[in-house]
Design brief:
- It contains 1 helix and 17 strands.
- The protein is mainly β.
- The strands form 4 sheets. Strands 9, 12, 13, 16 and 17 form a 5-stranded mixed sheet that branches. A 4-stranded mixed sheet has the order 4-1-7-8, with no helix packed on it. Strands 3-2-5-6 form a 4-stranded antiparallel sheet, with no helix packed on it.
- Residues 20-25 have low confidence and may be disordered.
Length: 251
């Protein structure tokens, strides 16, 4: 009898412990998106412990001009988040980071860190995000335009075939507001042209493939209900990977 009572007592304690664990709410977290636009880099390695040694297998690497969703880091809210950024593979103890940052990440916030400049002169653009909402009743997408090309003059963005610009006078390390576009109009893909704001010369173009596609598909629509940015990266006169080009950033 005593043995059975002991077993029941243990089971009851385990149930109470499990219930207690279930009521513990997770701490609020912040989201950080990182985009690598450092001319001359291939991969950036991030250390969210600052100067404290860390395990290399936990390192997050951000590829240059990566068109996929940028690295997203969630951390418990602690007010200030240290972040040291290295040019991979130069992440040994003797090597210095490209950047030493202390980011303020309020609980529940979303921020983007655009790492730009060059390996000799790295730079950053840190933005708190307030992304547009898309109603299910509207077939729309939102796009903004960013100038991350170090040393560039102000640029404007036009859609090929249209006379009025979508955005103008976007200086280095600045961006336009989000512009909402319909995606259920049966027409050709939009071609966005980044032009020198002063001379009107075309710098680079980007074709928004599938932005107006309305036919049946097993794949999700690449633009519907999504927020994206088109960013000008690279340096003027650069060749190969360092050329000026437009990349898409997903949020």
């Amino acid at each position: 009898m005593k043995k059975q009572s002991f077993i029941y007592a243990c089971l009851l304690a385990m149930m109470l412990f499990s219930c207690g664990k279930a009521t513990i709410m997770p701490k609020d977290a912040a989201a950080l998106n990182i985009m690598n636009a450092v001319v001359g880099s291939e991969l950036l390695a991030t250390n969210f412990k600052g100067g404290t040694p860390y395990d290399y297998y936990r390192t997050m690497y951000v590829q240059y001009a990566d068109p996929s969703l940028p690295t997203r880091h969630y951390s418990s809210y602690n007010g200030e988040q240290p972040l040291w950024i290295y040019n991979f593979p130069d992440t040994t103890e003797k090597d210095l980071p490209l950047l030493k940052l202390n980011l303020q990440l309020p609980a529940g916030s979303i921020h983007s860190l655009y790492v730009t400049g060059t390996l000799a002169q790295p730079d950053t653009m840190f933005v708190e995000e307030h992304l547009p909402n898309h109603s299910l009743g509207d077939s729309t997408t939102s796009i903004r335009f960013i100038n991350l090309s170090p040393g560039s003059q102000s640029v404007k963005v036009t859609i090929q075939g249209k006379s009025s610009p979508e955005a103008g006078n976007i200086a280095y390390k600045t961006m336009s507001n989000f512009i909402t576009y319909p995606v259920n109009v049966p027409q050709a893909d939009d071609v966005f042209e980044f032009r020198d704001a002063a001379s009107d010369a075309v710098i680079a173009t980007f074709t928004a493939t599938g932005i107006h596609y309305t036919g049946p598909s097993v794949q999700p629509h690449p633009w519907l209900f999504k927020n994206k940015a088109l960013a000008l990266i690279g340096i003027r006169g650069g060749t190969g990977a360092q050329r000026q080009q437009v990349v898409v950033i997903n949020y």
